[in-house]
Amino acid sequence: MAERGGRGTSSGGASSLDKSITLPPDEIFRNLENAKSFAIDIGGSLTKLAYYSTVQHKVARVRSFDYSGKDIEHESPYEITVQEEITARLHFIKFENTYIETCLDFIKDHLVNTETKVIKATGGGAYKFKDLIEKKLGLKVNKEDVMTCLIKGCNFVLKNIPHEVFAYQKDSETEFRFQTNHPNIFPYLLVNIGSGVSIVKVETEDKFEWIGGSSIGGGTFWGLGALLTKTKKFDELLQLASKGKHTNVDMLVKDVYGGAYQTLGLSGNLIASSFGKSATADKEFSKDDMAKSLLHMISNDIGQLACLYAKLHNLHKIYFGGFFIRGHPVTMRTITYSINFFSKGEVQALFLRHEGYLGAIGAFLKGAEQDNPNQYSWGENYAGSSGLMSTSPDLSPMQRARSSTFDMFEMDRLERPLVNLPLLKDPSTYIPDTVDLTDDTMARKYWLTCFEEALDGVVKRAIASQPDSIDAAERAEKFRQKYWNKLQTLRQQPFAYGTLTVRSLLDTREHCLNEFNFPDPYSKVKQKENGIALKCFPSVIESLDSLGWEERQFALVKGLLAGNVFDWGAKALNTNESLNYENRKLNPECTGFLLQEGPPHKCALIFADNSGIDIILGVFPFVRELLSRGTEVILACNSGPALNDVTYSESLIVTERIAAMDPIIQSALKEERLLLVQTGSSSPCLDLSRLDKGLALLVRERKTDLVIIEGMGRAIHTNYYAALKCESLKLAVIKNSWLADRLGGKIFSVIFKYEVPSE
User: Which cofactor does the UniProt annotation name (predicted)?
Assistant: First the structure.
């Protein structure tokens, strides 16, 4: 986060905040001039502000030419225009209470178009700062119940952020083990550790109950810690605990019995009595050791209590949050150990990336109920989010305080609701990505370097896509700097945005391009290649139709694979690695799929990849063959642009042009045996757990029994191991030498993976 305010060695006074607050408003309070509604969560030391704004950005639109009376041989297939579009965004900002007045002044000075007269507020500080907020902003403060807001916020992030939940593993190579989101998030136990402890059972979106708690919580640790160590600040107390050794203060089982207590199965290293040695030893104990002992005592008490309630209510998911947690390694580690011990490994302690924002999110949702934000799907905007900071105990309290002063989280409202593909065999265990770069150090270093080296090319492509723009070069340079900074952050903190994958690196790049109004850098390339491929379509079809049935099947698949080579996102095509494709042989499983006998599939779902030769000369001849067999086809394309992948709007025009040349495609469109749909994605990869709801409904309605996933991003970087309920075909050409070597092949090797689900 240094690029947004710097991280120095100051004492954390007002001057360090001033450096942040005096930055341009789009650096912190982004789009504040378009803010429509506000909510605020004020805790004991931190304030979390939430606001909804509209964001104006450029989008590339395609529109078919009117070809009546014209010679289409000399025309592009469509025209491209860049238009302004307004979308919705949620902003969340976290800063220290010490600076709330300064921040409120800043917000007031930059408010322009706000429509609201009310601000929803939650947290203990909502009462303390009510008059100040109303005076500064001229808005009426409506206070909301703390626990209701926390639960609403928790439900919201669990549903909308795929890598929200993690388990903490301090002693492993990867600190954070992110969890797969289950399609049904309920029921779960929420343990909120503030001054005390509240334990809430959440059964549905609107049904929850407080089932227990304890007066021994974060306030106890802070208060007793201050008495024992004379340390007044919570973070400094945790810093002491991170360096302490509790065994110098606590009495262990082996101190009482000389070793393990075998009769009860108790290890000799278990704590028999917290602070037990302080009663018998005639010496001074270090502040570090006392702080660590106190932390263990409170964490063990909370962990045992949470486990008992989880077992009582037959719950296996426990989410921990509150001021006591806040991403601190020592608290997460002790809570994790306690839960694992008392549950005998049956229950896992889980934490949330955006735990600090739950109250603010919930308060916002309470204020926006008339707009029903839950009817939409939302996605994290990586370009405007700080990410999860390192929890290393080596961070000084001032560094941690400084980071808390300046932290941001943004979510964009998606155009259409996203759901699971109904054909996933087990949505609860589905993992889209093939390689976890958070775990795989070698792979992580390779891919981060790969994206760094490709950055110059992306910048040039972005500038070239807008030749008439006088500020394109300036905006492209800002994109370069922002994405470069993101990559450097991920080198140090690969867990910043959840599990690090090739997909997340690509998505982050797309978010940064959109941030600086480069909506589709490959639009003109795609336009040209689509035009060229369309001219070749009739001769390709004529050639295929002249072949015998068996020979045609192999030619169709070879054409499909050959078309997939033309991918502007592939490293090989940007480094001129030699292409020796023609003599690649298809393995026996390809033959089994192509020449299988029996009735045709009822409906095939095809996820398309690249524009130009790939979709027009590769995919469409294949679609045409399936239609001829009597199989209906659903052709799914990206909703928005990513690299040179074909978009839904482009596919509509391309299909219209092909239908004018081919009666099979034309009649299939007319009879609705060929249906074009959008995926709901704007990524070169594919997450089958977040697809357009309309696509999912169509898959059910047409009783789809074959899924074809094409391309390196969709079939190799993602979904290589995806298990489906129906037959599936994953095919691609490997256009990256490192990946080919990792998979045991060579550059431009063919992946043709035909899978039949086991009964």
Answer: Mn(2+); Ni(2+)
Dihedral of CA atoms 737, 741, 744, 745 in degrees, nearest 10, equals 20
Percent of the chain exceeding pLDDT 70 equals: 88
Q: CB-based burial of residue 352 (10 Å sphere; 0-12 exposed, 13-18 middle, 19+ buried)?
A: buried
Q: Long-range contact list for 108-113, CB < 8 A, 24+ apart?
A: 108/136, 108/137, 108/138, 110/25, 110/29, 110/32, 110/33, 111/32, 111/33, 111/35, 111/137, 112/32, 112/33, 112/34, 113/33, 113/34, 113/35, 113/36
In 3D, which of 286, 192, 181, 189 has the Cα closest to residue 240? Answer: 286
Distance CA 133, CA 140 (A): 8
Counting Cβ atoms within 10 Å, is residue 124 exposed (0-12), middle (13-18) or buried (19+)?
middle
pLDDT in tens, 635-662: 999 999 999 999 999 999 999 999 999 9
Which candidate, 568, 466, 644, 526, places its Cα nearest to that of 76?
526
Q: Please state the pTM of the whole predicted model.
A: 0.89
Number of H helices, E strands in the chain: 26, 24
Q: Which two tokens stand for residue 8?
A: 């120095």
Q: What is the mean pLDDT of the chain?
A: 86
CA distances from 110 to 27, 29, 95 (A): 13, 9, 18
